[in-house]
Design goal:
Structural class of chain A: alpha+beta
Low-confidence stretches of chain A: 68-72
CATH architecture of the largest domain in chain A: 2-Layer Sandwich
Number of domains of chain A: 2
Mean pLDDT of chain A: 92
Helix content of chain A: 40-55%
Number of strands of chain A: 9
Oligomer: homotetramer
Shape of chain A: flat
Chain lengths: ~300, ~300, ~300, ~300
């Protein structure tokens, strides 16, 4: 259940009436405002607030260029130009606020993006929810043999069953012991009047990192795109990738022109080194360049051939 | 003239119709949205956009405190508690975007606040405006004798007149020479077809720092209050103080509860050292403490007596 | 064991010879460079590198004040002045790099300080260590009755014993299952050739947040003092406080004058609101102010009386 | 004169003796420590301090990869891999502190890089130096006709002479009037005992942005490379480019392996969009792609052809 009853009632109440504003409005984003987008088994993202739309980017860019930009005929062209040439500051003029529920191990990767504002649920003040992540069977990936941080095939049969059993049993027991140590249930009911109960800030240390936490997270559009580019990448761990992909969908509703430019120039883009460009230039001139004559290391050569789809 | 004709037409057009939104709205701030607040002789601040209101702060704080906060009965009390105890992250959940016109020497102080987003008018791309700051006669302060960075009495008579004459003449000449070097007027009209004209990025170097620049500036509420606290302080230079004071007025329209708490706990507050507190405690117990018996240096003693209004 | 064998050999090798440098050197800090300071049951802090000493702060401040500071006779006085008046930028000119081993739940609080550089051990690439935190019996605090985030008395007898048993057993089992799911021991030995083994990035999700992680953490002196002020505070959780206190000791070795000023003006200091100062002024004039006549809320009055030691 | 007499005496004194340290040392950087590298007509950069060398990057990366990296055979290979794949955090573990003298208009561009620490000479406290930038005749570029922010040919003959005359005369007069308004010379000698003198913070507003300022500037290696990549680029203004190029030389002395990787993978690199890569792939397969059949706009096509050296 993505939201609890109180939260659902709040969303319904908020969405009953609109208010007039002189600010820019993104109609497609208003449609989903406050509504949770379910992710993994108990997680979600929902948009709480936003500032600006595509035209805020244009507006900020025009201040920089001043009178000099009268000739720029088209907003989309300007946005695409800015993104292509990494003129990043106009994109910082838009801001997005999300409410996110996510496993702790995902939160630990996420928080490494420092240029954002965060308010997280506190296990010092409050009792943690009895919600933990267990992968769907099709995501029970084996360790990759070739790549230290990668995933290989999906586990099957008894091995898969045993993993799921461990994850579920250990999580349940951990939470039961969490309650026992606090001498108090998830709902705050005291278990044994004769006991004091361990401090919450200590008892929580028994919970594994697949338990869910939640936070409000606010970020500007430039840094959001940087986050998505890194975390929607195939090398990112699946469990954070689903959040990044959901944010890409949000991006399309919020700033459609920027979202398209982002997909064209960032998501499918590749950075080529001076030597890599040299190889391409020589090949286009008809020269038969091999790794040996390229000046590239074997690893770099493979990376280049990969990019060139060879 | 704070805005040019094009900008005034834009503001009028935008303010003709509102749009519906599910987001939080700050009605008193909507009233002045886009409208310039004149400052100094040619400067202004105008609010371009905002995210959140007082209740966004409460909302973010409640996520942190989770179920634990059901008992907190009152939003204003919570906001005041957060501000008093420097729980800063909930205040980062609100964001303000301003369009500001200001002299370059003010912009140079301003930009030292790094936790903000900026898009500035570019003198590389565009021709700078023929607008420069000349202090009103009552702000023509003499150098303070006691304080290196302070101002003393106001200059009068011939000395004042001479200063104003210098500032005006030098500014006018500088701009005239700026145009001559570019071989082009403020409006972009070529002066002499037989000349090439110096690059704008070079010609601008002739303009003094009392010339006006402008930028879009976006900042979260926590950092905005930090800015105001430092720059509305009596030790701040008058020319940046007027901007900080205007922002305090904006704060009152935007987040009235926070603005009140900010004035109570930050603007009029003082930080007392361990030794300073010790002096107060001893005095309240009836002990006659002097600088000699206080353990404070002479300078610290004076600062303490100042705070105590003695 | 704070360091493993390889690390201890590295430290010994590095500490065998010094190299000459023209840079500023902090002799008392050099004495402990690279050596781990043990904390909690398996954690540590060790200083890896530093930039600047007390005199780097003075040097940076003098650039700001330029020729104007010829008269400032004494470095310590200047440092104390800067810290007292929150002139923070000169303190940013010093930098400290630490290697820290800490429980994950402490790391989760720690990382909220965004103005630092971090490289953390990766559970995606590498197998986590079999090391977990179990509080010493004297730190098994009960939940505070009066304060949601506080600790009360220490648990005793059977209740304490049961808590320790749970923490130890659950941690051991979690690690055993971690190995079983990966099909691989802590040392990397395959357990069952017939199995594939779950990806590391997934298996680690079974480990509770009392397991240890480690990171390199680099921060400037201004932000370090902010961290210490918040985390060495009695309201901070004990398990992060021990790290903050160790950093205060490091501070004393590194920048002794700044460390002293920090203790005088920050650690023992209190911020008093406009209303709080008013109460003090009235009392010092002999007026008998009570909560009712103070204009303060009951809570604020208690906080003020607390500061005044009444 | 890059340094004044006092500063030169300080440098000589510091460089007379070395001290022993257990920290990493960069010998080639020690050679130039504190010594100014002259830039433009009165500017300079000098290295004041540094933290870490190439091996600090490797050290930080190995903490992340943990036991998993035993096989990485070579440090240079690791550094090149990290830089190629934009694993940026290990590069944040090195820090550089510079003392820089630069024209105000260059400082205004420079300060836009927010992730750095700065202490600037204060025109509120101190009297500004009588030093201003006048371009060498070969850098008196005309406004580019094709590119709004670019430079075209070099001005010649009378037009060039007139520009130089304006810049020199206006700067001299501005400073003379600055002294007159303060009623005080550069050296602090009062001009007319019968006058009060305008406050420094006001008088300075008469100085044009080609006057020199100075600051201490501290930045980590990752952000330094970002600065150099943007500011040593041919599109950057010449007057900031010379500083970026000097920093590239410093980089080579400080972290030679990183500097080489930076030149290979960043300086000469190009980012190609999804569509751009598609054009290359089709051409390499022998297809004759034109702008019309490429899906690229005319501008993007030109940019791509430019990168491909066609």
């Amino acid at each position: 259940m993505p939201l609890n009853d109180i939260q659902r009632a709040e969303v319904a109440a908020i969405r009953e009436t609109t208010q007039p504003t002189y600010r820019e409005v993104a109609p497609a984003l208003e449609e989903i405002l406050y509504k949770p987008i379910p992710l993994l088994d108990h997680g979600f993202i929902r948009v709480i607030d936003y500032m600006g739309t595509d035209s805020a980017i244009v507006q900020a860019a025009r201040v920089s260029y001043g009178k000099g930009t009268k000739k720029v005929s088209e907003d989309a062209g300007l946005i695409r130009y800015l993104l292509r040439h990494r003129h990043t500051t106009p994109f910082e003029m838009c801001e997005l606020k999300l409410h996110i529920k996510l496993p702790i191990f995902v939160a630990r990767q996420w928080i490494r993006h420092r240029t954002a504002n965060v308010n997280e649920y506190s296990g010092r003040y409050s009792i943690m929810d009895r919600e933990f992540y267990v992968p769907a069977p099709e995501h029970l990936a084996a360790q990759s043999v070739s790549n230290r941080q990668g995933r290989g095939d999906v586990l099957e049969g008894e091995e898969a069953a045993r993993v799921l059993e461990i994850l579920k049993e250990d999580s349940k027991r951990a939470y039961q012991h969490y309650e026992e140590m606090m001498n108090c249930t998830e709902e705050g009911v005291v278990l044994d009047e004769g006991k004091q109960g361990l401090a919450r800030e200590l008892a929580r240390m028994n919970l594994p990192v697949n338990f869910y936490t939640q936070w409000y997270w606010k970020i500007d559009l430039h840094n959001l795109m940087h986050f998505i580019a890194l975390r929607a990448d195939p090398h990112a761990q699946y469990e954070i990738r689903v959040y990044a992909e959901a944010m890409l969908d949000i991006l399309k509703r919020w700033v459609p022109t920027t979202a398209q430019a982002f997909q064209d120039y960032r998501m499918g883009a590749a950075e080529l080194s001076a030597q890599g460009l040299d190889v391409i230039r020589r090949r286009l001139r008809g020269e038969a360049v091999t790794q040996e004559t390229s000046g590239l290391s074997k690893r770099e050569w493979e990376e280049l051939m990969n990019v060139l789809g060879a």
